[in-house]
Amino acid sequence: MPNIKTTIAAAALAVSGTAVAAESIVEIATGDERFSTLVAAVTAAGLAETLSGPGPFTVYAPVDDAFAALPAGTVETLLKPENKDQLTEVLLYHVDDRNLPSSAIPVGSNYFKPVLESERLCITKSADGVAIDDGSGQLSNVIIADIQADNGVIHVIDKVLLPGTRPACH
């Protein structure tokens, strides 16, 4: 027997004419040309199936320009099969295993634990927006927040987060 809430919600959407097919984080990223490098990296690391799963996930998704700003040859080196473990670590630093819309990020500076368990991110929310400190000395800024997926949320960022040095959260 179908779930009555689902049936009512589907009927309401059909009547309103605003029914939209739900897409996973991977489907959204694949359909957006700004994420072609991220999609290539997720595919090379073998994470596409996981990030297409039920989640929930929050993905801090670097745009292609963020990957292009890395030192010359970095992306090509990470995409080599022999560097899959290192690529996977970098990518998992961009994923939280919770659904964290921007409204769930508290004002101020707070540590967040990405899926890469050995690391932490310092996320600062202020009137100026949301910035992420990975300990590299350069902040990543959320340039588009709250792209809703059926398995979580995407926050678009302008810098690739690099694991290694724990950021100071103050």
Question: If you had to describe this structure to a student in words, what would you say it looks like?
Answer:
The chain has 170 residues and is α+β, with helices and mostly antiparallel strands. It has a single domain, classed as Roll (FAS1 domain). Helix content is 30%, strand content 24%. The chain has seven helices and seven strands, in the order H-H-H-H-E-H-H-H-E-E-E-E-E-E. It has helices at residues 4-16, 25-30, 36-44, 48-51, 64-68, 74-78, 84-92; strands spanning 57-62, 95-96, 108-112, 121-126, 129-133, 140-149, 152-157. It has a seven-stranded mixed sheet. A hairpin with an 8-residue loop joins strand 3 (108-112) and strand 4. It is globular, with a radius of gyration of 17 Å. The N and C termini lie far apart (53 Å). Mean pLDDT is 86; it is low at 1-19.
